[in-house]
Every structure is written in C-alpha cells, then in structure tokens.
Amino acid sequence: MAETVKLIYGNKEYELPVVEGSEGEKAIDISQLRATTGLITLDPGYANTGSCTSSITFMDGEKGILRYRGIPVEELAEKATFKETVYLLINGKLPHREELTRFSVLLNDNSLVHEDMRAFYENFPRSSHPMGILSSMVNALRSFYPELQNLDEEINMTVTRLLSKIRTLAAMSYKISRGHKVVYPRPDLAYCANFLNMMFDSPVRPYALDNDVVNALRVFWILHADHEQNCSTSAVRLVGSARVNLYAAISAGIAALWGPLHGGANQAVIEMLNDIAQNKNMGQAIERAKDRKDPFRLMGFGHRVYKTYDPRARIMKKMCDSLLDKLDLTDPLLDIAKELEMVALKDDYFIEHNLYPNVDFYSGIVLRAIGIPTNMFTVLFAIGRLPGWIAQWKESLDDPNWKLGRPRQIYTGPTQSKFIPIDDR
Ligand code: CMC
Fold first, then answer.
1. Which residues of the chain have pLDDT under 70?
2. Sheet holding 4-9, edge to edge
3. Closest residue to atom 18 of ligand 1, CA basis
4. Which of the following is catalytic: 224, 227, 262, 303?
5. Is 114 a catalytic residue?
6. DSSP letter at 347?
7. Suppose 266 and one of 3, 135, 270, 360 were both cysteines; which one would form an S-S bond, judging by CB atoms 3.0 to 4.6 Å apart?
8. Which of 291, 360, 398, 399 does the annotation list as catalytic?
9. CB-CB contact of 20 with 26 (8 Å)
10. Nearest CA to ligand 1 atom 44
11. Whether 217 and 80 share a structural domain
12. Which residues span the domain enclosing 195?
C-alpha cells in the first residue's frame, strides 16, 4: 500500500501521499494542501522543498554521490568526452558513434557568432565583469536567431546554437577585453581544444595545444555539467516556467550563477587564498569564518546538499596535483589551500557544521594552471553547467505536471490602512 503522512490540524485529520524516487528518497506530496486545509508551507531557501521530479541527476549529500543519468561522475570524468556528457544529460542516453558524429557536425556548423554582435562587446566598459557580458550576450542571441515555426526544430536549433556559441561568445569577450583580435572556431578541433584555441591563439604566438591542459578542461566541464536543483538551475526552471524563450531562461541562469555563494565562489576562493598569501592571515580567516557576527565565510567550503566531502572536489584536488606536476608548475596558492583544508577539517566548528571543501575550492587553481584569468572562472563554470540547464529546462517542458512557478508567502506587513494625503502626514 502506498505510504501516506497524517496531518492533524484543528479537529481534522488529513492524509498526504508520500512520493518515492528511484533511489529511495521520499517526499510528502503537498500539492493539494492549500485546497484541502487552507495552509501553505513555509521553507526559506527551499531547503526542504522538492520543486519537481527529475530523472537527470542524482545526488546523495550524506554519502557524497553524484550521478548523471545513473552514471557516476567519477566514471564520466575518467572515460567520457565532454560532448558525450552533454549528449547524455540532454538526451538521456550516451550517443552511438553516428549520433555523436551528427552532433559534432551540428556544433561545428553553429559555432560562429553573428558578426554584428561584436559591436556590443566593444561598447561594454572595459571593467565589466565577463559574467554580466555573457548573460547579456546570451539573451541578445534571440534577436539574431528569431524563433522558428516548428517547435521541435526550434528547440533543437536553439539548444545546438547555445551549446556551440557559448564558447565562442566567452572567448570573444576575453579577446575583446584585452583589445586583441578575435579567434574563430576551427572545424578540426574538438569541443574543449577549440575553446582553448579561441582563448589563447594569437597572430604573434600560435597556441600549442597541450593534451594535459585539454584533459583538465574536459574534466572541469564534466564535473560542472549538472547538479540537480541548485540556485541557477532553479532560476532557469522558474524563468522558463513563464514560457520565455530558452536564451532568456539561460541568461537568467548565468546571472544566478555569478553570485559568490554559487558559481562565483571559484573566483572568490582565489581572491581569499591570495589575501591569505599576501597578509599571512590564515588563522584570522578561520576565526572570522567561525564568528557568527562576521559575514565572512571560508569560500569553497560548505554546501547546501553535501554534508560530506564533495565528490567533485575530490576529483578536482587530485587533478590539480597531477596537472601541476605534468606541467611542471608550482602554485603557492595550492599549498595554502591544502593547509587551509587541513586546519579547517580538524577544527570543531567545521566538523560540527559538516563543512568540507566543495567543487570550487581547488577548481580555481586548475584554471590558473590552464591560463584562465580569474575574472573568467565563473564563465568557465557557466559553459560547463549549460548542458545541465538545458536538460532541466527540456525536462520541465515535457513534464505533464508542469505549472507556472509561483511560490506563495506569509504576509507580515501592515493590515489595511488609509491613504494619508501628503499635507496631512
Ligand atoms: N564558512 C563558515 N561557516 C559556514 C560556511 C563557510 N563556508 N558555510 C556554512 N557555514 C555555516 C553557517 O555560518 C551556518 O552556521 P550557524 O548554523 O552556526 O549559523 C551553518 O554553516 C549553515 O549555513 P547555511 O548558510 O545555512 O547553509 P547552507 O546550506 O545554506 O550553505 C553555502 C551553503 C554554499 C551557501 C555555504 O556553505 C557557503 O556560503 N559557502 C561558501 C560559498 C561557497 O563556497 N559556495 C559554493 C558552493 S558549491 C558550488 C555550487 O554548487 O554553486
């Protein structure tokens, strides 16, 4: 018999159905709560609220598990290409060889960006943050690539354009911000290599692709490809629920990701490590993070869902070590990060609060080794997260239980009051 939960309110008893997921996690279905009881739920930050059912990504925050369409992220990071991972997330299965070839051809054919868009870049102030620029440019794509009549064709084209052009847009913003010539995508290069070449090739210094660097970017992007109902994905779903076009929904996701508590943490971690390196104030940083009156937090530490070591951080840390070793690089920030982790993990505050390094703690050091400037770190996260946003948006589009996203509230303001004319106030 299906499980239910009993709710006693006033002198009445209500029975609420329990929904069970394929991995055994359970939720109380409250979709009829207000209609039957007059009550709503109150859950700031939605920490106890499931906003949808989803078959894309499974996370177990207590055990440190992350799987895309059932496949452990560790296995994908070891064996898959980023393109295969993108296909898996969006289409629900790994591609056959012909499917992958067709997908690659489509990505190649759509990799150019309308030349008129270059004028936009030139008019942003030089100090603009690349995340703001990326969010605007993705939104602007709708004006350059208007809606097609056939819905399936429209969705496929928009998805392909976004996946392909986001790399070109991101690399263009970097080149133009430096006052350098834009490098176009190349048909002979795969997804990750193509992006690196657009970022770093120059007429005076041709970019020599390094397999270890390409591999590091592949792993970085796979680790960021989806993370179920996080802040930016929920933004994409919520904005998308108003049935805006996909470019606008993704643009909202990019804006949400920019925040330092979310994707912007990868930039904030490096800024924090730099500060510790310069001012030799690790002890002070730890004490400030523990002080509830101080808003300072240890960036790259803690997670809403993971109450153990983030599985992505484990892979990232290992890759960080091996990449620096292979490239024969040393980064003083890596030593500081490791020491900070060691000190924090032995500290009662961090133990009691279940605070462990998250994906952003070591990712910045990997990106620095690749040559990515700090203000582009979150842009790299956005390119990686794009397939997840698209997959979640598509899933919401096909959901038979789809509804416009519209939370309620408990009003705490003044009760009905009279308007007082300005001279009588
Ligand atoms: N440093 C110090 N204390 C922390 C930290 C931290 N990084 N993270 C959480 N806490 C404390 C917090 O002060 C609170 O303490 P108390 O209960 O004594 O008041 C307790 O832990 C719970 O914090 P919370 O903010 O209610 O927990 P949350 O689940 O909402 O936090 C978080 C998640 C990511 C916002 C938070 O851990 C944080 O701010 N971390 C730093 C920013 C960061 O690294 N963000 C990247 C997240 S991973 C990438 C991604 O998926 O976006």
1. none
2. 4-9, 12-20, 26-28
3. 292
4. 303
5. no
6. S
7. 360
8. 360
9. yes
10. 300
11. yes
12. 58-398
